[in-house]
C-alpha cells in the first residue's frame, strides 16, 4: 500500500519533466546545419520549383506625367524544403509555425521595374508540416507603367510587376505561377481606377539562363466624373455658341453673347486643366477636341464681326451688291401702294406726291432695298449657323468614333 502511494505521488512530478516534441526543434536543427544562402535543392529533382502569386490590396495612385503606379500588396512564394516535415499527431497537432526569414533561403527575384527599391523587406515566413515553405512579402511599391492617354477619359492602362531572376539560373529554380496568379480578394476600390482584368507572362532573356515573370492587370478609368465635369459642359458651351447666329444684328447683343461664351470657355479650360494628363508622348484626343472647340468659338467671333459688317454695309459697297445679287429675291417694281406706304400722308397727300414724285419713289426704293438687304444678312447668319453646326457635329462625332475605334 505504501509503495502504491509512493508511485501515485511521483507520477505528477515525472509528468512535469516530460517535454513534448515541438516543430521548432526541427527548424532549429535544420538552420544549424544549413546556410540560408544555400539553395535547398531536392535530392529527387534537378531543380527547385517555386510557386509565385500576387495579392493586390490597394491602388493608391497612377501618375500619368511621371508614369508611375503606386500600389500596396504582397507577393506569395511557396516551395518545398526536404527535411522539414513532421507528423502533426506526434508534434502536438501543430500544422504550421512561423520562421524568421533571415534563417532560411529566400527566392532571389527582384522587382526590376521598381522606382524606389529593387527588393521588398522579408516580413513573414511560415513552414507547414508537409515541408512547404511560404514567404509573404508585403510592401508599398512604386513601379513604372507606360501610360497611353490617347483615349482619355475612356482610356485603359496595362501595368505589371516585372520579377527578374537575379543570381540563380533557370536550371536551378523553376518559377511557376500559382493556380490564381493574381488575387483581388482583399482589394480596396480606388476612386479613379478600377481593375478590369489581369494577365501573366514569362520569358527567358540571356539565352535562357534567367527567367522573368510579369504579373499585371488592366486598369480602366472611372469615366462618370469626367463625363459630367469635362465633356458635358464643353458640349453645352458649344451649343450655346451656335445660338449667337440666331441673335438679330440690330439688337446690339450679338457680339456681347459671342464674346461672353468665348470667355466662359477660356475660363473653363483653366479649371479643367488640373486633371488633364500632362503627357507629350501620347496626345489625348480629348485635348485635340478641346482645341478644336476653342478654334470654333474664335471663328464664331470672326463670323459675328463679318455679319455685323454686312449689316452696316453701304448700298454702294461691292460686297453688298454681290451678295444681294446672289442671295436676294428678284427685284420688283415699286407699286402705288408702296408709294403711299412710303409717304407719311398717304392718299391725302397726293398733291405732295405730284410735287415730289421722284423723291418719294427714291425713299420707298431705299426702304425696300434695305429690307431686302436685312434678309440677305439673315441668310448669311443662317448659313454660318449650319456650317458651324456641321463642324460641331463632325468634331464631336469624330472624337467619340475615334475613341470607340481604338477601344475595339
Q: In words, what does this structure look like?
A:
The protein has 408 residues and is of the alpha+beta class. It folds into 2 domains: 20-222, Acetylcholine Binding Protein, Chain: A (Distorted Sandwich); 225-407. It contains 9 helices and 10 strands. The strands form 2 sheets. A 6-stranded mixed sheet has the order 3-5-6-2-1-8, with helices on one face. The radius of gyration is 42 Å and the shape is rod-shaped.
A few lines on this structure:
The chain is an alpha+beta fold and 408 residues long. The chain is 41% helix and 24% strand. The protein has two domains: 20-222, Acetylcholine Binding Protein, Chain: A, CATH 2.70.170; 225-407.
Main features:
alpha+beta, Acetylcholine Binding Protein, Chain: A, 2 domains, 4-stranded antiparallel β-sheet, 9 helices, 24% strand
Topology at a glance:
Blueprint: H1 2-17, H2 23-33, E1 48-63, E2 68-80, E3 96-99, E4 109-111, E5 124-128, E6 132-144, E7 156-165, E8 173-183, E9 193-203, E10 212-221, H3 224-242, H4 254-272, H5 285-311, H6 318-327, H7 336-342, H8 350-355, H9 357-407
Parallel strand pairs: 1-8
Antiparallel strand pairs: 1-2, 2-6, 3-5, 4-7, 5-6, 7-10, 9-10
Amino acid at each position: 500500500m505504501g509503495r502504491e502511494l509512493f508511485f501515485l505521488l511521483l507520477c505528477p512530478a515525472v509528468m512535469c519533466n516530460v517535454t513534448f516534441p515541438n516543430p521548432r526543434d526541427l527548424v532549429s536543427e535544420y538552420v544549424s546545419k544549413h546556410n540560408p544562402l544555400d539553395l535547398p535543392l531536392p535530392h529527387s529533382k534537378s531543380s527547385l520549383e517555386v510557386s509565385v502569386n500576387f495579392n493586390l490590396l490597394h491602388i493608391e495612385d497612377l501618375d500619368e506625367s511621371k508614369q508611375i503606379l503606386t500600389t500596396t500588396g504582397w507577393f506569395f512564394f511557396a516551395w518545398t524544403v526536404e527535411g522539414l516535415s513532421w507528423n502533426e499527431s506526434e508534434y502536438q497537432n501543430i500544422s504550421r509555425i512561423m520562421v524568421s526569414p533571415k534563417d532560411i533561403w529566400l527566392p532571389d527575384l527582384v522587382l526590376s521595374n521598381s522606382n524606389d527599391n529593387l527588393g521588398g523587406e522579408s516580413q513573414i515566413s511560415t513552414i507547414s508540416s508537409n515541408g512547404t515553405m511560404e514567404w509573404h512579402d508585403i510592401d508599398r511599391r512604386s513601379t513604372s507603367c507606360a501610360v497611353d492617354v490617347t483615349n482619355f477619359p475612356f482610356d485603359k492602362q496595362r501595368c505589371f510587376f516585372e520579377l527578374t531572376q537575379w543570381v540563380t539560373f533557370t536550371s536551378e529554380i523553376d518559377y511557376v505561377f500559382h493556380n490564381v496568379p493574381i488575387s483581388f480578394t482583399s482589394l480596396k476600390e480606388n476612386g479613379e481606377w478600377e481593375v478590369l482584368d489581369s494577365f501573366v507572362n514569362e520569358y527567358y532573356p540571356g539565352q535562357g539562363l534567367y527567367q522573368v515573370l510579369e504579373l499585371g492587370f488592366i486598369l480602366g478609368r472611372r469615366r462618370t466624373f469626367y463625363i459630367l465635369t469635362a465633356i458635358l459642359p464643353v458640349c453645352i458651351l458649344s451649343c450655346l455658341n451656335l445660338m449667337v447666329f440666331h441673335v438679330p444684328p440690330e439688337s446690339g447683343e450679338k457680339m456681347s453673347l459671342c464674346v461672353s461664351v468665348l470667355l466662359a470657355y477660356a475660363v473653363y479650360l483653366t479649371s479643367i486643366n488640373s486633371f488633364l494628363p500632362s503627357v507629350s508622348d501620347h496626345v489625348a484626343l480629348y485635348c485635340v477636341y478641346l482645341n478644336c472647340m476653342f478654334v470654333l468659338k474664335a471663328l464664331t467671333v470672326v463670323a459675328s464681326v463679318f455679319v455685323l459688317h454686312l449689316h452696316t454695309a453701304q448700298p454702294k459697297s461691292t460686297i453688298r451688291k454681290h451678295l444681294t445679287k446672289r442671295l436676294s429675291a428678284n427685284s420688283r417694281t415699286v407699286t402705288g401702294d408702296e408709294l403711299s406706304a412710303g409717304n407719311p400722308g398717304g392718299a391725302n397727300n397726293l398733291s405732295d406726291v405730284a410735287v415730289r414724285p421722284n423723291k418719294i419713289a427714291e425713299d420707298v426704293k431705299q426702304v425696300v432695298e434695305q429690307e431686302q438687304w436685312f434678309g440677305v444678312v439673315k441668310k448669311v447668319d443662317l448659313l454660318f449657323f449650319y456650317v458651324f453646326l456641321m463642324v460641331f457635329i463632325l468634331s464631336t462625332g469624330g472624337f467619340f468614333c475615334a475613341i470607340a475605334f481604338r477601344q475595339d
